[in-house]
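Title: [Solved] Protein msta 3D structure

Original question kept below for reference.
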Amino acid sequence: MSGLKVCAFCQNLAFQKCSGCQVVYYCTREHQKSDWKKHKKNCNPFKICDEVLEPYLVATRDIKPGEIIIQEPPLLIGPSQVTVPICLGCNKAIDVEKFKPCSKCGWPVCDSTCEKSPNHIPDCQYTVSKGSKVTISTFGSIHPYYQCITVLRCLYQKQFLPDIWNKINVLQSRCSERKSTSEYEKDRISIAQFILRFFKLKHIFNEEEVLRICGIVKVNAHEVPLTTPPYLALYETSSTLTHSCSPNCNKTFTKNGSLIIKAGTHIKKGEQLFLCYTDPLWGTMDRRRHLYETKFFWCSCKRCSDSTEFFTYFNAVRCQSSDCSGYLLPPTFLEQSINRKLPNWICNKCSCVNSSNHVQEILDRIGLDFKELPEKDIAAAINFLTIYEKYLHNNHYYLTKVKYTLSQLIGHEHETNLPQISDENLARKAKFCQNIVNLLNILAPGESRKKGLILFELHATVAELGRRNADPHQLVVIIQEAKKILIEASEALKHESECFPEGQIYIQALKNLKEMEVVLITLHQKIGDACL
Ligand SMILES: C[S@@+](CC[C@H](N)C(=O)[O-])C[C@H]1O[C@@H](n2cnc3c(N)ncnc32)[C@H](O)[C@@H]1O
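Solution (posted by the thread starter after getting help):
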C-alpha cells in the first residue's frame, strides 16, 4: 500500500505528479489547479533529474536572483575529520576551564544540557556499550579520536534509524576514485579499524562499509561556520547539486544550521542548478586540484574549459619578451592532472612559448611572497601590487586576492574610518572594489557573499568621495548612486543570518539606507532653498 499516492486536494488515489516539486500528487488536472493557491507556497522550483544514477537539479520555472530554492535542516551533524576536541553536544571547542566529562561516557561536553543533546546520543551509546569511558586530556591541538565521530553517527543511523539512513545511503561515496588515494588507506586504519576495534563493533559492521560512509561524508558534507571550529553537516536535497566554478546558486546557513540554497542569477526554466564547492577567487589550477583532492573529480565546467576565463585573463602572466605587451596562458587547463604536466604557455601577442615549469616557478615565487604578506599591513599589500603588476595581468588571481583584502582593510585600520583616510587611499579603495565586483559579475555571477561585502564597502567609499569633492547638486547624484550600490549589497546579503559578519553587514546596510534617505531629503531641501 505504501507505494500508492493520494490526491493532495481530495485524498482519492492519484497518479499525476506535480511537475514542479515532484512530491505532491493529484487525481486530475482540475484538482491540481484548485490546490495551486495553497501548494505554490511549498512547491519546489526545481526537479531532480537522474542521469545514470548521477542526479542533478533543473529549474522547473524561471527563478529570480536572491530567491530561496532549497531550505533544509541537516540529516546529521558531527565534527570535522581533523579537529581539536569539541563539545559533542553543541560543537563548540572545549573550554578547558569549564568543560565536564559526560557522566555516562566520559567524552568532554560543556555542561549537562550539552550532555543531553540528541547530537551526542550515538557517540554516548556506543561508548557506554563498549564498557569503559573515554578520557580526553589534551585540548588545544588536533585530537585523533574525533576523526571517527561523524562516521560513527552515520553507522548509528544505519543500525537504529532506517528513515535517516536511507537518505544518507543514497549519497555518493566515490569509493572507486578514492580507492587509488593514500588517504583511503589512512582512513582504513584511523577511522574504519579504529571504530570497529575501539567501540567493539566488528560483529555489526565491516571495514568496507565504514570506508563507504567515510566517502559519503567527504563528498557530501558541508562545513557549517556557525561554531569555532566549524562542524560538518549532511543535507538531503542539496547533496544533489552539481559543482560549477561559475555557479548560478549560492549558499548560506540559518542560525539553527539549516542550509539555504539561493539563486545568484536569473535562472531560466530548464537550466541546471550549480553551486561552487570551492572559492571562486582561487586560480584555476588551485580550484581544480582542490576539487580533485576533496571531491574526487577534475572540474571541466565552462569556466575551467576556457583558459582566458571569459576573457578576464584571471590566470594570465605577462609576456617578458622585450617590447611585448601580451599575456601567457596554456591553450587549456583541462590537461592538468596528478601525473601530467600542463602544456606550454603561449603569448597571445608574440606567440612565444614558455614551458609550464618555467611559468610555475614564477607563480610559486609570487605565491611565496603572497603567503608571507603580513596581516592587515596596507603598505605591504600595496607594495606587493606594485611589484607584481609587472609580471601578472591586472585581473590575475594573486593581484585580485590582495585587492580584495585591501578593499576590506582600507578605512577600517586601527581606530580610523573612511573620513580619516587619505584621498589616495580612498580612490584606491573605490577602484579595487569596482574591479572585484566587475570580475565577480563575469567569473562567478551567482556568488553573493563576497559581492555583498564588496558592494557595501563600495557604497561607503562612493558616498565619502562625494562628500569630499562634490557641490550639493553633484552630491545628490553621488548619494543616489551610493544608495543604488547599497540596495544591491543588501539584496546580495538579505538571507544572511545575524550570527555571521555578513548578516551584521546586512543589518548595517538597512540602517545606512534609512540614513541615506534622510541625507537625500536634506540635500533636496538645501538645493531647493538655494534656488529660491
Ligand atoms: C555532493 S555530490 C553531488 C551530487 C551528484 N550530482 C550526485 O550524483 O548525486 C558531489 C560529487 O558529485 C560529482 N560532481 C559534482 N559536480 C561535478 C562536476 N562539475 N563534474 C564532475 N563531477 C561532479 C563529484 O563526484 C562529487 O564528488
